[in-house]
Amino acid sequence: MRKPKITVIGGGTGIPVILNSLRHEEVDITAIVTVADDGGSSGALRSVMQLTPPGDLRNVLVAMSDMPKFYEKVFQYRFAEGDGPLAGHPLGNLIISGIAEMEGSTYSAMQILTKFFHVTGKIYPASENPLTLHAVFKDGYEVAGESHIAGYQGMIDHVYVTNTYNDDEPTASRKVVDAIMDSDMIVLGPGSLFTSILPNLVIPEIKQALIDTKAEVAYVCNIMTQYGETEHFTDADHVEVLNRHLGKDVIDTVLVNIQKVPQDYMDHNKFDEYLVQVEHDFAGLRKQVKRVISSDFLRLENGGAFHNGDYVVEELMNLVRMKKR
């Protein structure tokens, strides 16, 4: 029988957790990864080389690979602060950028590296051009650049993307639209709503593919609200923002964590962008989606609250099997 096709869309540190668990299942996986990051090592490399930023792609590559732990340690090694021009750059970012320059695109670099590291599945940058994320706030003020958005005191109304180095309309990478249309399930998130998930969805071709696809569209809602993005948001608020950007109610199923994060557990020095736990609004969700899966998806580690990838994937697999039946 044909393996179920599952496409995961997002960026940051959220989707690698899901992908790492999903690769152990009998599924055909595609990861579509944001290319709007303009901060840190990724931002520095993209401004120098005018290539799509490598950081989120690097983390997804590691999550989907069966590389030995030592190789992973080497690939993720970050140069020390005293290392001059190399300071703060993960070695993997330099490798991806070097191959991208050699091959002419980050898309081609990822196809080479997925073979090199025996990746389970396919990894596509959302666009083959670096994108600039624009956030328009409720008061009409606009901020350009993902790394600058959290610095403005206000509530975001909507976001959009532009090509960073030309005036053409942003387009999806080759094979991205086909992957979405051929999927049995699309998984959005988890990850930062406005800066990791939506930068992919507002690319016109991807937005239209999500509207047209017959795949089940599942959203893994965040556990914590995020400074500068989702203060005071309920899980229903997250879904409303996604559907509003897509132009219709595209989300079929929402997975929400209902296990409480222990009071005073979060290390707010280490995880300073995360505020309080997302509140559950079941009535608000039921107005927007067909199905709500509420469960304990919580993993507590090193003073942070994360998704337990195995628990989330167990529910996703139950869902995709039910849909196939």
Automatic annotation (TrEMBL):
GO molecular function list: LPPG:FO 2-phospho-L-lactate transferase activity
This protein's GO CC annotations: cytoplasm
Main localisation: cytoplasm
GO biological process: one example: regulation of cell shape
Keyword Iron: no
UniProt cross-references to InterPro entries, sorted A to Z: CofD, CofD-like_dom_sf, Gluconeogen_factor
Localization: Cytoplasm
CDD domains linked to this entry: CofD_YvcK
Glycosyltransferase listed as a keyword: no
Pfam families xrefs: CofD (PF01933)
The entry's keywords: Cytoplasm
Family designation: Belongs to the gluconeogenesis factor family.
Entry function: Required for morphogenesis under gluconeogenic growth conditions.
Protein name, entry field: Putative gluconeogenesis factor
Species: Streptococcus ruminicola
Gene behind the chain: yvcK
